[in-house]
Amino acid sequence: MAFVGLNVGNLCQERSKNHVSACGQRKKSIAYAKKKKNTWETPTTEYIPTEMDFMGWTPPPLKEDEFTAIVKTAAEAADERKGRHIVALRVAKLTCVTTFFLYISGGSAPQLRAITNLVEERLKEEHGMTTRYGIPGNPASGWLLLDYGDLMVHVFSEEQRKFYDPESIWQHGEKVDLSDVVSPEGLRKPEEAMEYGLNTIDEDDDWSLS
């Protein structure tokens, strides 16, 4: 799993002020969960109540969450670079590592890079945001990550997206409605696009200048 080796305490402290106190309450729950057999080695499909559930803490409605607009900016940029199967989940009650995940599929290494480049550009221009760890990874690996703290943008190849199946791992997250900023093609899974007679991910497009 991608979370192995992360310093959860430091990540919690770097979160926005609105979430720091809540994250502090999650440390014991996360430490306990890591001791449970297979909790981190295999996808978790069963929701495990945490201290925050018993505290009665709830995040604000999605429309009132300041990061929702930022998520939509990133999703719209990905759609412009023909990203497919664009999905955003708010996981504020499930982890203190981040608040939102944005998942995007691309058809080639150059396209993955083109998507991440435009997302970085738009978030910097419109929201003054830069990633915390610089280089998002190697496009040839089929998985790039842009870490903005409260938002983590994952750009996958189709193969890696199916292999890691992140939506199943975080299936209890709140799905963000992106229909106002992402095209119908951008929202569909590649196999659904084929059913509708649409082109799937454009593997042959020239992304060298993107």
From TrEMBL:
It comes from the Eukaryota. GO terms for biological process: negative regulation of ribosome biogenesis; negative regulation of translation. GO terms for molecular function: ribosomal large subunit binding. Pfam families: RsfS. InterPro entries: Iojap/RsfS/C7orf30, NT_sf. HAMAP family: Iojap_RsfS. Belongs to the Iojap/RsfS family. PANTHER family: IOJAP SUPERFAMILY ORTHOLOG, MITOCHONDRIAL ASSEMBLY OF RIBOSOMAL LARGE SUBUNIT PROTEIN 1. This is Ribosome silencing factor. It comes from Rhodosorus marinus. The lineage of its organism: Eukaryota, Rhodophyta, Stylonematophyceae, Stylonematales, Stylonemataceae.
